Amino acid sequence: MKTSKFILKAANTLVSYVVVISLCIAGLYASYALWDNSLVYAAVDDVQADMLKLKPEVRDGRPSFDELLAINSDVVGWITIDNTSMDYPIVQGETNLTYINTDIYGDFALGGSIFLDSRNDRNFNDHYSLLYGHSIINGRMFGDINLYKEEAFFNENQTGSLLTTETSYDLKIFASLIVPANEIEIFNPLVWQDDIEELVDYADHTALYLNMDIIEEMRAMDGDLLILALTTCSDEFTDARTVVLAVMEPNSTE
Q1: Which residues touch 189 (CB under 8 Å, ≥6 apart)?
Q2: Most buried of 1, 22, 219, 248 (most Cβ within 10 A)?
Q3: Where are the domains of the chain?
Q4: Is the pTM of this model over 0.85?
Q5: Could you read off the pLDDT of 111-128 as tens digits, one per residue?
Q6: How far apart are the first and last CA of the chain?
Q7: 63 has which bridge partners?
């Protein structure tokens, strides 16, 4: 009897030790994960702070990208969406994997960069240009695109700007969508180069929210359109993506 009690007590003690050790390991892992995430966020913030000091100014109708190009010759523009954290340089790599985990300095970074689809014209002369960026907590990188899943935010925040190495554009956001990552209509920019009006029709039938006034203005332009898409990860389903579409209009102050 005493032997049985001893064995039971020893077993209970062993189980307690295992539980305590497991909890300690879990705690250490959670602490490491938080520390690791904090480094990712800090790196994104540090790069953005550095880049904002070099944000191009428009002089004589042309943005000055000299300082950014001296850092990285792959820089092709700068995107700003009003009332969000999106205010970043744009790069374009040889493939769409080049900058997915690489910052503007060419260093490994989980936050990656904001980049233009490798199939697009680097001067944004295509009828449809596509930008990618990670969705990182607190709106970092393209995280604030997910704000456009809220109707009130979409209705109140539809402006921004795009600077290229040649000129500048005002942006008018006209659609917010949630699509799968394999949606050809969004993720193959070659589809719309010959008939951009069909993209407007696609958005009209697919979008979560629309600005119909802008869409009517676009339809009146008889195909003379430049449209910019911004996309990031979403969480509605596996491989979900949030997309906003904006019409690019030459800056009226030039």
Answers
A1: 117, 119, 120, 126, 128, 129, 130
A2: 248
A3: 58-250
A4: no
A5: 999 999 999 999 999 999
A6: 95
A7: 58
